[in-house]
Structure formats: structure tokens, C-alpha cells
Write a structure and sequence with these properties.
Elements: H1 2-5, H2 10-36, H3 47-69, H4 77-98, H5 104-115
Amino acid sequence: MDERRALDSPLRDVASMLRSLDHVGRSAGRRAVVRNGGPVTSPGLDLPGWLRRSRERFLASYRAGLRETGAPIVLDPTLLRAFELDKECREFIYAATYLPSWLWAPTEGLRGLFDGAEEGRA
């Protein structure tokens, strides 16, 4: 309990939110493929674009909030990426241990992080 209450970088929470957005987008894409019976070619499903825009908009809103409050926090892209990798690795371990049917999500998330599929990181 003490570990959970310990002070930590707010960027860890930002990274968690970014990973959650990634999972939501990838889940929607996966459901669309299942419902379609194969790859979706409809121009209405721009998963890479949605992932990029959701990330950019969240970070822009977060930065605006920091400016409004005068918070002395800087969004360091390298540190944010490290926290995202940490979060996704923890998701992978959790899924492998307790929820194997969800293992695809952190696998795809890690692939996206390593492939550079998520442009405009911070």
C-alpha cells in the first residue's frame, strides 16, 4: 500500500492514459475486422490516424492545462516514452498471467511503440 501511495512522476499517469487510448483504438479496429470477416477497407476506419490524433489532442490538452495552472511540469518525450514502455510491459505481463485473451492488446501496443507507429509522441 505504501508503494502505491508514494509520490511519482505525473508523466506516469500521462503515459497510462496514452496507452489506454491506444488500447481503445486497437480494440475498435480488432472488432471491426471481426465483424467484417477480414480487413476493413472502408475509408471510415483510419486507425493509424485516430491513434495519432487522439494522442496529439490529449497531449495538447494536457499541456494547455499545465499552462493554465502554472504547473512546473515539462512533457519530456524521452521520459514519457520510457513510462509508456514500462506501462505496456506491465500490461503484457498481467495479460500473460491472468488474461491471455487480452495479450494481443499489449503485444500490438508494444509493436506500435517500437515501430514508431505513434508519431508526435510528446
